[in-house]
What we know:
Layout: H1 8-34, H2 49-105
Helix pairs in contact: 1-2
Amino acid sequence: MTGLEIALGAVGQEASRIRAHGEDYDAALQPLKARGDGVSSWGDDGLFAVFTNAYAECRATAMAALTGLSAEMSGTGEGLQKAVRNTAETEAANVQNTEQLGRTWV
Length: 106
């Protein structure tokens, strides 16, 4: 043992949880996305154009960042699930190859 072993069951379980958190986070953002730019309700007649443009740009940047965060959470869950799958497949291949190695030396 090297001390670098992976508890595949625990990692797989947490991978599912992280992916679910990402999906929940994205679902929570949907109402914010549906609101649009947020400045149309101000009834601006053009006097506040500088402020409304800055607000709309800030809001768009924030929504892009929050959407990216959601994607990263989901991607992390998928990556952990892939690590579990790859580790299990590698361990199975190592066992099979080790068994065959013992037969070839006999």
